[in-house]
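[step 3/7] inverse_fold.run input=structure_tokens len=423
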């Protein structure tokens, strides 16, 4: 498509957008008396208008039934979590029995590493991306120490080449091959939080398995953002949060994927809890853990129903919109944002912005390396009704989300940045 840097063209794209009505299903924050341009769905998604109703239903059932709500609530709490795998299959590309909604992201990462990171004298290394999200870095470090190992000897980071911002897939695969005999686990983000790069998860998984290692992914910035096919890619495990692109509220309940080939293996080590115990005899309260033969076998505690109600409100919208359509619109939004940023540079005597997100491996997020006036531009954006995200030392992350952002949002953003840079 040949883009144009005009308001009329942006409005034309919005008019032909089959998903445009979904914006009305969300509350848009107000700044200076008007709806803002909200570009931080990669940090916290907006609230669906149905969320309050979904949570209120559970509060009413709690008030009406007390503990009997586990059996008599409109959505009985005993089995509440069981509705989510079918809603998430199209989002993460897993089979229902491979998916469980539980806990928080880093809790799930530790639980999964307890199973899939079992270092030996020969195999003990963890291969990951450089500049992984800090929580992941701390999880890897603490897992190494938990096993009595030195993180500096365990963790192998793959970073961009000098002068580049994107990690080349060939460098990831070569690093795995180089350390093949000593590698226990390969774990990457689906989308790098800083530069927005989408990793080639299929190739990374194959390389890890060829090396004799397990492979997992942190999908915090990928779930609800990009196309995922975890089962077909043969990933051993993955985990994600729900409060970013999945719009399920601050600190919302998280999710996990364990491949079908592992879920019935009762000999896999795990940190167990009673909600992972086989359902038929769970309430006999006997010693000796007997895991459910699905991803549910990694559960620890019963469902956090109020948080899950918010999750359900958002996932019902995803079910209605369809992940394939959202992916297609998300790519078009990002492409238009790339174009608008290029126009900003063309209109200047010198290059002001360098996009460090790869055009051919991106989701919704576009990361702008500000070569001039970075912090000034960021602060001025909010004063002009734009909520974006700042990452030190000089990157503005912008994430137009297909459920509630428009092409006019992107054009207006470019117009505002252009005015700021000319000041």
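[step 3/7] decode complete -> sequence:
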């Amino acid at each position: 498509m040949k883009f144009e840097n005009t308001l009329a063209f942006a409005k034309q794209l919005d008019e032909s957008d089959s998903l445009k009505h979904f914006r009305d299903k969300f509350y848009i924050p107000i700044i200076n008396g008007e709806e803002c341009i909200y570009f931080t769905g990669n940090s916290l998604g907006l609230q669906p208008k149905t969320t309050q109703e979904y949570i209120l239903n559970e509060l009413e059932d709690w008030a009406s039934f007390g503990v009997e709500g586990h059996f008599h609530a409109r959505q009985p709490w005993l089995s509440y979590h069981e509705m989510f795998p079918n809603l998430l299959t199209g989002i993460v590309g897993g089979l229902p029995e491979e998916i469980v909604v539980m806990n928080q992201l880093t809790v799930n990462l530790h639980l999964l590493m307890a199973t899939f990171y079992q270092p030996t004298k020969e195999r003990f290394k963890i291969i990951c991306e450089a500049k992984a999200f800090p929580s992941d870095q701390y999880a890897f470090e603490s897992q190494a120490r938990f096993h009595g190992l030195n993180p500096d000897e365990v963790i192998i980071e793959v970073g961009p080449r000098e002068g580049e911002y994107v990690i080349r897939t060939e460098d990831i695969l070569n690093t795995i091959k180089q350390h093949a005999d000593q590698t226990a686990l390969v774990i990457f983000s689906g989308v790098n939080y800083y530069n927005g790069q989408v990793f080639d998860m299929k190739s990374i998984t194959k390389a890890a398995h060829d090396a004799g290692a397990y492979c997992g992914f942190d999908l915090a910035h990928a779930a609800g953002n990009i196309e995922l096919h975890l089962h077909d890619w043969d990933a051993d495990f993955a985990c994600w949060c729900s409060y970013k692109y999945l719009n399920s509220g601050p600190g919302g309940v998280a999710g996990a994927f364990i491949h079908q080939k592992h879920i019935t293996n009762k000999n896999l080590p795990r940190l167990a809890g009673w909600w992972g115990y086989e359902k038929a005899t769970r309430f006999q309260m006997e010693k000796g853990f007997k895991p459910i033969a699905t991803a549910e076998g990694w559960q620890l505690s019963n469902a956090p129903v109020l948080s899950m109600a918010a999750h359900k409100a958002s996932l019902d919208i995803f079910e209605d919109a369809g992940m394939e359509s959202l992916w297609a619109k998300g790519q078009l939004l990002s492409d238009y944002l790339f174009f608008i940023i290029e126009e900003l540079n063309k209109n200047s005597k010198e290059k002001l912005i360098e996009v460090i997100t790869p055009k051919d491996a991106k989701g919704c997020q576009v990361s702008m390396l500000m070569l001039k006036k970075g912090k000034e531009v960021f602060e001025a954006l909010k004063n002009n009704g734009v909520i974006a995200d700042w990452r030190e030392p000089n990157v503005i992350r912008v994430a137009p989300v297909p459920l509630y952002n428009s092409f006019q949002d992107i054009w207006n953003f470019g117009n505002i940045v252009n005015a700021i840079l000319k000041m």
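[step 4/7] annotate
Residues 7-47+322-421 form a domain with the Aspartate Aminotransferase, domain 1 fold (CATH 3.90.1150.10).
The CA atoms of residues 171 and 343 lie 32 Å apart.
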